[in-house]
């Protein structure tokens, strides 16, 4: 158990140390931060547009981050031979697969957590359709700069990884700023504006919807990790993108094409993840509370789907030839 | 017997790369595992170290079947892979501590073992440096340090001095000789000078088949009988097999 924990922590650290992880996160955060600006003068649809765009950004960038993390930590480790070192220790192949996947999932959780905190902030920046909260916008981009500065200082003084330190700084700054602003806004805003769905987003509506994105990115993380045991980064990215696109639309077409409840339709919809389950854009635009049962069933679906792919990853890794390039 | 491999076979697809290989190495022995490129040396090293399962055959380390109890068997093996693959973004100390924890060492015991391994491999001055910034020789030393950190009873080294300068080669060879007292050592190499310098036994492999398994003196005597040196004997034995 301790071995799996150690390997997981190491895999997570490796992911966070990757400059590409930081760059992906930075790009996602800049986009999310700019959405309030792009969605001005939209006839009282500003918050809805900000939510939709930010969640879509988190999902798409989460997918890319999942593929990059798994390719860098699993595929590269298999190619350059460090897997030989681990496999020669008292570490089983199953422990290796489990720990790598859990390490990648931890780093992806951090990725989505920061993006979600940024989405929350972005919703707060979108004050109304004609104005932005300029001080909050400054805080938002200030936090990105401050995190980069922290990473730079740690790198210069202690030779610690710039990327991981900057990411950790963002993971601390963004939720704090978002939570403090939400509390202040909730206390200072008049009641009639709080009730206005175009002026204020209740945390109890927003947070569960954002949490659903964790499940989506975890599933993509496990799929890309399983594929990374056999595929290079480009092939992995192509398959994941295909699964993403097909999973978005398949459930609309499977029933009409194969008939409702048929084995073919069931097989089709079981093999490809249903990303629509995690998309709560409509729920947010109508300010509906997500039922607890729906949340639990979606979590269960995600866990079962991830478990199936972990099994598949283990099967693929079991007979794979390790460290081909070192021979 | 510390390392016992019996009737090992390995296939890559339809290609048979190791064909009925058996070897035995005891404490105090340094076995020079030699053969031309593509002979199956690295594959055999991987099978003996438990990294790769054989197609058929058994490997026992200190009497423990590596297939039956891989964790216990692997805890007695130190493995130095070819090309010294390492986690480049870690410091030397952090990497050694990481591998030590995988062997179940913590706290003071871990620190003591890391310090001793660094001392033995001459890594004291580079303890805080990132592995990426080290020279090739130092990277190999780090890899060697991780393989001896847990005092293995069986040490398996794949090309341990490949690419090192003469001084570094000498230091590594001295270290191997100092380890042989309480360890069974297998060195895979195609440098016959290395076999001459550190090995007590020779195992010659070509196209996955055993061509010679015996004492170094026997191997040398065979070369003398043909009025040639070790390189000449190696060529005679392997070229005949390769054509």
Structure description:
By secondary structure, chain A is mostly helical. Chain A is built from 13 helices and no strands. Mean pLDDT of chain A is 86; it is low at 323-327. Chain B is α/β, with parallel strands linked by helices and 243 residues long. Chain B has nine helices and ten strands. Chain B has helices at residues 41-48, 70-74, 92-102, 107-120, 136-148, 166-179, 192-198, 216-225, 230-242; strands at 3-12, 15-25, 30-34, 56-61, 64-65, 77-80, 154-158, 184-189, 201-206, 209-215. In chain B, the strands form two sheets. In chain B, strands 6-7-8-3-9-10 form a six-stranded mixed β-sheet, sandwiched between helices. The two termini of chain B are 35 Å apart. The chains are: A mainly alpha (327), B alpha/beta (243). The interface between A and B is medium-sized, with 26 and 31 residues.
Primary descriptors:
heterodimer, A: 327 residues, mainly alpha, 79% helix, disordered C terminus, B: 243 residues, alpha/beta, six-stranded mixed sheet, four-stranded antiparallel sheet, 39% helix
């Amino acid at each position: 158990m301790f071995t799996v924990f150690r390997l997981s922590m190491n895999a997570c650290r490796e992911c966070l140390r990757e400059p590409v992880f930081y760059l992906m996160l930075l790009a996602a955060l800049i986009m999310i931060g700019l959405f309030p600006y792009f969605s001005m003068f939209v006839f009282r649809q500003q918050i809805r547009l900000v939510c939709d765009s930010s969640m879509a950004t988190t999902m798409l960038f989460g997918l890319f981050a999942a593929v990059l993390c798994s390719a860098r930590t699993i595929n590269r480790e298999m190619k350059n031979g460090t897997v030989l070192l681990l496999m020669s220790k008292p570490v089983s192949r199953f422990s290796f697969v489990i720990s790598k996947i859990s390490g990648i999932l931890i780093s992806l959780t951090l990725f989505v957590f920061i993006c979600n905190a940024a989405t929350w902030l972005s919703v707060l920046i979108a004050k109304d359709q004609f104005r932005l909260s300029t001080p909050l916008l400054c805080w938002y981009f200030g936090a990105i700069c401050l995190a980069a500065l922290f990473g730079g200082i740690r790198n210069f003084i202690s030779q610690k990884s710039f990327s991981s330190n900057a990411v950790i700084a963002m993971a601390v700054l963004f939720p704090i700023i978002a939570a403090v602003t939400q509390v202040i806004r909730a206390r200072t805003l008049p009641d009639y504006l709080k009730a206005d769905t175009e002026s204020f987003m209740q945390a109890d509506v927003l947070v569960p919807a954002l949490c659903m994105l964790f499940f989506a990115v975890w599933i993509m993380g496990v799929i890309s990790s399983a594929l990374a045991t056999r595929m290079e980064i480009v092939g992995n990215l192509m398959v994941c993108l295909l699964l993403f696109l097909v999973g978005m639309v398949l459930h609309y077409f499977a029933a009409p094409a194969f008939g409702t409840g048929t084995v073919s339709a069931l097989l089709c919809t079981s093999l490809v993840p249903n990303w629509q389950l995690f998309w709560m854009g409509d729920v947010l635009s109508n300010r509906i509370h997500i039922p607890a049962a729906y949340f639990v069933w979606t979590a269960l679906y995600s866990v079962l789907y991830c478990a199936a792919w972990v099994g598949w990853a283990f099967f693929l890794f079991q007979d794979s030839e390790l460290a081909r390039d070192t021979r | 017997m510390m390392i016992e491999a019996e009737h090992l076979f390995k296939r890559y697809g339809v290609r048979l790369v190791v064909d009925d290989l058996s070897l035995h190495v005891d404490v105090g022995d340094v076995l020079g595992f030699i053969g031309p490129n593509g002979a199956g040396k690295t594959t055999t090293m991987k099978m003996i170290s438990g990294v790769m399962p054989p197609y058929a055959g058994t490997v026992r380390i200190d009497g423990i079947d590596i297939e039956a109890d891989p964790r216990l068997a692997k805890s007695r093996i130190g493995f130095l892979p070819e090309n010294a693959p390492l986690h480049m973004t870690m410091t030397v100390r952090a990497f050694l501590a990481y591998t030590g924890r995988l062997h179940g060492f913590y706290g003071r015991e871990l620190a003591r073992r890391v310090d001793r391994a660094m001392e033995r491999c001459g890594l004291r001055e580079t303890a805080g440096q990132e592995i990426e910034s080290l020279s090739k020789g130092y990277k190999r030393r780090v890899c060697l340090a991780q393989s001896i950190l847990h005092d293995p009873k069986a040490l398996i080294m794949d090309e341990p001095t490949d690419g090192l300068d003469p001084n570094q080669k000498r230091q590594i060879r001295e270290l191997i000789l100092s380890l042989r007292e309480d360890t069974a050592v297998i060195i895979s190499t195609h440098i016959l000078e290395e076999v001459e310098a550190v090995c007590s036994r020779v195992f010659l492999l070509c196209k996955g088949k055993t061509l010679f398994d015996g004492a170094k003196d026997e191997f040398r005597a065979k070369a003398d009988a043909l009025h040639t040196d070790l390189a000449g004997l190696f060529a005679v034995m392997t070229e005949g097999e390769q054509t």
